[in-house]
TrEMBL record:
Keywords, comma-separated and alphabetical: Calcium, Endoplasmic reticulum, Glycoprotein, Isomerase, Metal-binding, Repeat, Rotamase, Signal
Keyword Signal among record annotations: yes
Location of the EF-hand domain: 521-556
PANTHER family (alphabetical): PEPTIDYL-PROLYL CIS-TRANS ISOMERASE FKBP10, PEPTIDYLPROLYL ISOMERASE
Protein name: peptidylprolyl isomerase
EC numbers, comma separated: 5.2.1.8
One annotated Gene Ontology cellular component of this protein: endoplasmic reticulum
Domain (PPIase FKBP-type): residue spans on this chain: 45-133, 157-242, 266-354, 378-465
Signal sequence, start to end: 1-19
Lineage: superkingdom: Eukaryota
Chief subcellular location: endoplasmic reticulum
Length: 562
């Protein structure tokens, strides 16, 4: 003969069972709705929660957990259920529906149950299993997706931000939210099972966490959404992770081959950046604005972590900096852009930096062997140049014009730093000059030149004409003739007309004893000088006129203007 359990298994073979109970009349099970996936079946000792309708064989209902609005909860196989149901739910899956027909001797027998169930009555239970757990259960986790690289895992005392969907074991949702859930891990702020299930996750990982009731809300449940003794299923997406003890993290991506100087506190820096959260979603970028972010370093003009991260950088360097929220925007975040307690990731590219105390930097790249004459203030020079940003972006070049520029040094004709950089050069000399913005185009920039940009000039001096001080048209290069008038009076007729005056001045220039202002018409200059001495406007200079003029200008020492 068959044992009782053998008979049970025989009678539940297939989806619908039509076998007739034997003489012992065991339970008859009709599994009329079985889930496609059944990760776990009810066994003796398990706790179950199920809804049921109880009817007699004629269909008359005698009991219903559905109508009471509270499913039945109990332990299987320990005599806490009627024997027929103890056997009838064995092997069930969550969300399975089955009809269990229980003979009297496995139900209420010859006694019945009060006025509700008569003696020797066959009972029919239509059961749907909602939950199953065991006191030996542990938190179950299953990773659904995970980033290829996972440099950090959630640990106890970390602060995390995550999205989740919460369902009961039978897939009934009980909680979900648009925003993240933000909390410490392993410090008692969460139910025990969630504290445990979140450990070891990566940012960007999606994980299913199944929590037995005794590690969740136990017998109390939670309001009307989580029943007593409910297993909870969470699908979690980890958004953010940090620890209150975290400092900034720096990953150097690219460093120039040559780096002669690094940023320090007090420097002014221009850099591009992409700002993202740890999950890779972006919140800001300077590239989209086509404008660098410009700021002083270490002086509180930017968030604390960025102030620190911007130190020790080279021009052209690229690095990734990760800022914990306590060194960024903290628990409050900022506006609708950055949520509270968000870790920020910045990919930085340094364009240039300088210090307000910087002078120009000069590096001579080529110089003639003979260099007897160098440029200085008041000289008229012609030069070739390329002007670039420090990242190599060309702004201007003299090669773009038909003729190289000509300027007088010290005459405020070019930016101050370039003027200084052109001094002390020999004709044929080449040099590189770095000009900080306060000696360049300043905070306002110029056409084609960004605000506060450090400029890189490549210079070559093409021509040099020694100049005269501002306000003068002619200077003596040594002592002037004394007395002056007899030297000017070339034909010794005691008067000097314009032609004679012109001849005298040209002789001084030719012999190197005097110099006219370069870059101007020599004839025009000499005529102006003559008119300045011809006090009575009679077309000639006499000794008395020259004497009066010299006395007026005696305080000008060597630079008497004729």
């Amino acid at each position: 003969g068959f044992s009782i359990f053998a008979l049970i298994f025989l009678c539940v073979t297939g989806t619908h069972v039509n076998c007739s109970p034997g003489p012992l009349e065991d339970v008859v099970i009709d599994r009329y709705d079985i889930p496609r996936v059944c990760p776990r079946e009810v066994q003796t000792g398990d706790f179950v929660r199920y809804h049921y309708n109880g009817t007699f064989t004629d269909g008359k209902k005698f009991d219903s957990s559905h109508e009471r609005g509270a499913p039945f909860s109990g332990q299987v196989g320990l005599g806490r259920l009627i024997t027929g149901l103890d056997r009838g739910v064995q092997g069930m899956c969550v969300n399975e529906r089955r009809k269990v027909t229980v003979p009297p001797h496995l139900a209420y027998g010859s006694i019945g149950a009060g006025d509700v169930i008569p003696a020797d009555t066959v009972l029919v239970f239509d059961v749907v299993l909602l939950d199953i757990w065991n006191t030996e259960d542990k938190v179950q986790t299953r990773t659904l997706s995970k980033p290829e690289s996972c440099k950090r895992l959630v640990e106890a005392t970390d602060f995390i931000r995550y999205h989740y969907n919460g369902t009961l074991l039978n897939d009934v949702p009980f909680d979900s939210r648009n925003g993240t859930y933000d909390t410490y891990v392993g410090m008692g702020y969460l139910i025990k099972g969630m504290d445990e299930g979140l450990i070891g996750m990566c940012v960007g990982e999606t994980r299913t966490i199944i929590i037995p009731p005794f590690l969740a809300y136990e017998e109390k449940g939670y309001g009307t959404v989580i029943p007593s003794q409910a297993t909870l299923v969470f699908e979690v997406l980890m958004i953010d992770l940090f620890n209150p003890k975290d400092d900034i993290a720096v990953v150097v991506k690219e460093v120039p081959k040559t780096c002669t100087r690094k940023t320090v506190v007090g420097d002014y820096i221009r850099y591009h950046y992409n700002g993202t959260f740890q999950d890779g979603s972006g919140f800001d970028t300077s590239y989209q604005r086509n404008s660098t972010y410009n700021t002083y370093i270490g002086m509180g003009y930017v968030i604390q972590g960025m102030d620190k991260a911007l130190q020790g950088l080279c021009i052209g360097e690229k690095r990734r900096v990760i800022l914990p929220p306590h060194m960024a925007y903290g628990e409050k975040g900022t506006g609708d852009i950055i949520p509270g307690s968000a870790v920020l990731v910045f990919d930085i590219h340094v364009i240039d930096f300088h210090n307000p105390k910087d002078l120009i930097e000069i590096k001579v790249t080529s110089k003639p062997e003979k260099c007897n004459l160098t440029s200085e203030v008041d000289d008229l020079i012609q030069y070739r140049y390329n002007c670039s940003l420090m990242d190599g972006t060309l702004l201007y070049s003299s090669d773009h014009y038909e003729k190289a520029p000509i300027t007088t040094l010290g005459a405020n004709k070019v930016i101050e730093g370039l003027d200084e950089g052109l001094r002390g050069m020999c004709v044929g000399e080449k040099r590189v000059v770095i000009v900080p913005p306060h000696l360049g185009h300043g905070e306002n920039g110029a056409k084609g030149v960004p605000s506060s940009a450090v400029l890189h000039f490549e210079l070559e001096l093409l021509d040099l004409q020694k100049g005269v001080p501002d306000g003068y048209m002619f200077v003596w290069l040594g002592d002037s003739p004394d007395p002056l008038f007899p030297a000017m009076d070339l034909n010794k007729d005691l008067s000097v007309p314009l032609e004679e005056f012109t001849a005298f001045i040209n002789i001084q220039v030719a012999e190197g004893t005097g110099r006219l202002r370069p870059g101007m018409d020599a004839g025009g200059i000499i005529k102006d000088m003559f008119n300045n001495q011809d006090r009575n406007r009679d077309g000639k200079i006499v000794a008395e006129e020259l004497k009066l003029k010299v006395e007026e200008d005696s305080d000008k020492a060597r630079h008497e203007e004729l």
